[in-house]
Amino acid sequence: MNVYDCAHQLARGLKESREYQEYKDLERKVKTTPQCKAMVDDFRKRQLQVQGQQMMKQQVDENTLKELQSLHHVLMQNPLVAEFMHAEFKLSQMMSDVYKILGEALDLDISGLE
């Protein structure tokens, strides 16, 4: 068994999954709707800034977190964006599950990475 062949087979399986197909379909819809794309891009930019601060063990301002939560609430009021973010979460969860399965099979301690 060639590990790389298995990885390519897994990648094909992921691309053919309902979760991935739904995500890509909604991603196209969001990208072709300027208002939705701008909202998602802005949220992601702010979210990445906060995550970066957290990873660097920097204190994140409480107001910044409240603004991010408020922006998330606004995003979820838009049906297309809400559906897209839900699909993105499902895909992310599936990828996390696959990574966990691999880690457990190899007896890797990935508890600090979750």
Question: What do these coordinates show?
Answer:
The chain is mostly helical. It has a single domain (3-113), classed as YheA-like fold (Up-down Bundle), CATH 1.20.1500.10. 80% of the residues lie in helices and 0% in strands. It has five helices and no strands. It has helices at 3-16, 18-31, 34-55, 62-75, 79-105. Helix 2 runs antiparallel to helix 5. It is flat and about 50 Å long. The chain starts with a helix and ends in a 9-residue tail after the last helix. The relative contact order is 0.12. The model has no long low-confidence stretch (mean pLDDT 92). InterPro entries: Com_YlbF (IPR010368), YheA/YmcA-like_dom_sf (IPR023378). Belongs to the UPF0342 family.
* Strands, total number: 0
CATH topology: YheA-like fold
Rounded to an integer in angstroms, the radius of gyration calculated over CA atoms is: 17 Å
Number of helices: 5
* CATH architecture classification name: Up-down Bundle
Structural class: mainly alpha
Number of domains: 1
Mean pLDDT figure:
92
Q: Provide the β-strand percentage band.
A: under 5%
Sum up the overall morphology in one term: flat
How much helical structure, as a percent, in the residues?
over 70%
Largest sheet: none
User: What is the CA-CA span between the terminal residues?
Assistant: 29 Å
Low-confidence stretches: none
Order of helices and strands: HHHHH
CATH homologous superfamily annotation: YheA/YmcA-like
Oligomeric state of the chains present here = single chain
What is the name of the CATH class?
Answer: Mainly Alpha
Protein name: UPF0342 protein CACET_c18030
Organism: Clostridium aceticum
Pfam family, one: Com_YlbF
Family: Belongs to the UPF0342 family.
